[in-house]
Amino acid sequence: MQKIVFDHVTKYFGSAKAVNDAHLTIQEGEFFTLLGPSGCGKTTLLRTIAGFYRQEEGDIYFGDRKINDVPTHQRNIGMVFQNYAVFPHMTVFDNVAYGLKARGISKKETEQRVMEALEMVQLQHLRDRVPSDMSGGQQQRIALARAIVIRPGLLLMDEPLSNLDAKLRIKMRSDIRMLQKELNITTIYVTHDQEEALAVSDRIAVMSEGRIQQIASPEDIYAYPANRFVANFIGTSNFIDGEAAGYNDKDKNASVRVLGASFELPLVKPHEGKAVLSLRPERIRLESAPRPGKLVEGVIESVTFLGEKVSYLVRLQGGPVIDVQEHAVEPHHLRKVKQAVYVNLQLEKATIFDGEGKEVVY
Ligand code: ATP
After folding, report:
1. What predicted TM-score, i.e. pTM, was given to this entire model?
2. Which protein residue has the closest C-alpha to ligand 1 atom 17?
């Protein structure tokens, strides 16, 4: 168990920066996730930690030890990959024992540690089977046991659940999370699946085009996205153009004009001109009757029943189509297509970015 530090790490492929100035600390025992779309640099960053790649700029530390030039096999890392990478015709026991044999651990200790690891992933009863006739979920458990049996200081996982079906993914991710907490092992996990990241992580780094966009807890990433990319990538966001004017330095207020109405809001930084409002679907209220003040008229364009919730696409008068979600407590009372509604945007619950969506102003 140890903390991991990236000090301005950059990794090039040719002239392209696959990882651009990664600067962060992962705490001891933390479950830390690298999340982002395909090609954003997650795997490359993970591979520099493992020592498969050498960064061109910056330093990586395990605890206080700089490991830039330490080869992979001396980094004491356990790894689990998407494609399991187990030996298909070797028994489960021998697969898990493999790393211990390579380290010259005695037969007696190997037996004890392998069985302990197999118990942790609930495979002890299958010790003499071979992976080639086991399910994907079971093979991934073998890979996990093999990674933890060496008692690594750091566990790296690259899309470990991608090959499993949806139900099994949910079960496995909670098993991995519990095991990680039980062992208290610093873990770096790569996924492009935001729901998975929100479910398992202590903190998440959202990446785009090689750059880390935001590092925060799942709750904070969702509630306080740092820029438009994060707001768009995590969960659903409605973006509405607005304009800020009359910023007042004394009480830090500005008047934000959106969809023909103006609202006085306290900004977190001085801003005038174009602004983008970002609103989560569940933060917007639909009302059936007009009320003076902040309601915007709209018409329902589509209704999608999602089980627990129902999603309405609403065309706002003079504005965009937005997604509004309500709890579907009584499904027969669903609103109807073409129904007129009054939309309460609850702007105080919005995030407002500058015109380019680069930073938060409210
Ligand atoms: P995915 O989820 O698709 O695996 P990723 O976020 O893990 O994507 P990386 O695999 O780290 O992304 O790739 C980051 C960028 O670096 C991409 O533009 C990719 O094309 C490029 N890249 C990755 N590996 C190499 C390589 N060995 N040689 C050249 N370019 C590479």
Report:
1. 0.91
2. 39
Q: Which residue's CA lies nearest to atom 19 of ligand 1?
A: 39
Nearest to 118 by CA among 93, 87, 140, 135: 93
The interface pTM score, or ipTM, of the predicted complex is: 0.95
Pocket of ligand 1 (CB under 6 A): 13, 18, 36, 38-44, 192
Å from CA of 41 to ligand 1 middle: 6
268 Cβ neighbours under 8 A, 6+ residues apart: 252, 360, 361, 362
Q: What is the Cα–Cα distance from 91 to 95, expressed in whole angstroms?
A: 6
Structural domains of the chain ordered from first start: 4-232 (3.40.50.300), 236-354 (2.40.50.140)
Q: Which residues of the chain are under the pLDDT cut of 50?
A: none
Q: Rounded to the nearest whole angstrom, what is the distance from the C-alpha of residue 12 to the centroid of ligand 1?
A: 10
Residue listed under structure tokens 């139900």:
167
The two structure tokens encoding residue 166: 């949806």
Task: Report yes or no: 225 and 280 within 8 Å, Cβ to Cβ.
Answer: no
